[in-house]
Amino acid sequence: MAERESGAEKINFDEVDVYEQLMEMTGGRGPDRCIDAVGCEALAGGKVDGILDAVKTATMMATDRAHVIRQAIMSCRKGGTLSMPGAYVGAGDKIPIGAFMNKGLTWKTGQTHMQKYMPMLLEKIRNGEIDPSFIITHEMPLEDAAKGYEMFKHKQDSCIKVVLKPGMNGSGAAS
Fold this sequence. Notes:
By secondary structure, the protein is an alpha/beta fold. The chain folds into two domains: 2-109, NAD(P)-binding Rossmann-like Domain (Rossmann fold, 3-Layer(aba) Sandwich), CATH 3.40.50; 115-165, no CATH class. The protein is 35% helix and 11% strand. It has seven helices and five strands. The two termini are 32 Å apart. The model has no long low-confidence stretch (mean pLDDT 84).
């Protein structure tokens, strides 16, 4: 989606080593900024540390899969910034804190302050300054919220964003 809408470059971790690809793209320097927008639900494909994260999570030995944040720390250039709006719920394992400190990275975290930004963003949408409709792939009645969440969670039917509409009947029309 980001590639299509904004020209961002996509790196598929199932096809290439993310660290090596980023080093190649930046002449060995690493990106200025890395963003972990997924958090504890990140999957790591067949990478050894990702498999260990999944096993530890499944056996209650860990609560978060920290593969993406580990990759971000290792990939980000010296003096760079890591942003982590993705939600974590507990303890991450094997965070390379030495690399983080020795690179002098800045780490910005936290939930989005929706109460602050929502009115400004809604105004920009109303004024036509931004159009977020390109991310909406499904519309459902409010009563189907659980079904919509499961579809999103399991990436079924190419689901990116579900909009729930009170009063909509099952056929997609307003009742």
